[in-house]
Structure formats: C-alpha cells, structure tokens
Amino acid sequence: MRQQNTDAGNFVSPFKVEAYYQENIDQFVTPDQIKLRMIFLRKGLFKEEFKTSDGEIVEKDPQLVLAQEILKKLNTGSDFSSLAQAYSEDSKRNDGGDWGWVDKNTLRKEISDVAFRLRPGQISHVIDLDEGYYIIQIENFKKGGTQSLEEVRLQIEGQILQEQRLDQQRKWIDRLKQKSYIKMF
C-alpha cells in the first residue's frame, strides 16, 4: 500500500537537479586525499636501560627503540607492507598497514599534519603520541575539488526522488489519520 501511494508520478526535471546542485554545492566538494600506510606500536609499560654508542646508559621505551629500528629498515629499502604485517598493532595490520584513501578529517590532527606534508613514496619519522608510536608512508595523493553536475546527476535525482516519496508518504499517512478514529483506553 505504501508503495502504491508514494510512487505515483515521481519525476525529477533537469531544472530541479541543477537547482539542487547549486543550493547544495558544498556537499559535492571532495577534499585532498592521500593513500596511506601506517605502522602503529603501543607504548611500553616499563622503560629499559640501553647503552648508547658512546657507552652511556639511558632509559628508553623498548617500543620506541623497536619503532626506530623499523624506520631504519624502511629507510634502507625494506617493504613497508611486510613490516606492518610483522610489527603493527592496529586493525590494518593484516592489510599491510593499508588505510586506503583518507582525507585530513579522517586522521588525528598530529598525524594528518605530518602525512599531508609528505610526498608520494616518502616515509615519516617516528610520530610519538600519548598512546604509541606511528610510522606512516604516503603512496599517492589526490587533489580535491568540486564534482561536476554530470558526475553527481544520478545521485541528486535519487535524493530528490527519495524526498518526494517521503513527502508523499507523510501526506498519505496524514490523510489516513484524518479518516481514522482512534480511541485510547
């Protein structure tokens, strides 16, 4: 019944599509994006003593030492994906640390500030944050911009049709309510 009462005569004119596009142009803006790989190591609970090259003993987080060793391997040509699978402690570990295409709003500010300064192929330094250590690699970059009307025409038509159906459904339910008598006990 609902479909019979809400699908009657729905048509979206090109003028409506263009007007919707102009009124909602900010919905069709895509930000700059990067294709990102990341290795994450949680901070250690206890510090350990390490001997420096000049013989001095210093206390360091063993996870930080591991992160620095991973970074050295990456800088000498090791595969980021295999090191991420071996060492990373985040949800993308099995994917080789591949986070896919992300924009600035997807990442924490501290990470996005570093990531969006890198060029494709570059690897960051060890990023030290409260919860752990991050190493990121940028695989590619896409410049943002506004999608053209032709790219989003079908999406807009679908949105307008859905709005029309919801409006028709609301009117149909209002008519049913006016015709009905409801008694509450």
Describe the structure.
The structure is a single chain. The protein is an alpha+beta fold and 185 residues long. It folds into 2 domains: 2-27 and 148-179; 32-143, Chitinase A, domain 3 (Roll), CATH 3.10.50.40. The protein contains 6 helices and 8 strands. The strands form 3 sheets. Strands 5-2-7-6 form a 4-stranded antiparallel sheet, sandwiched between helices. A two-stranded antiparallel ribbon has the order 1-8. Helix 2 (14-23) crosses helix 6. The protein is elongated and about 90 Å long. Keywords: Isomerase, Rotamase, Signal. Its EC number is 5.2.1.8. Residues 31-140 form the PpiC domain. It holds the Pfam family Rotamase.
What would CATH call the architecture of the largest domain? Answer: Roll
**Rg value:** 27 Å
Shape: elongated
The chain-level mean pLDDT equals: 89
| CATH-assigned fold name of the largest domain | Chitinase A, domain 3
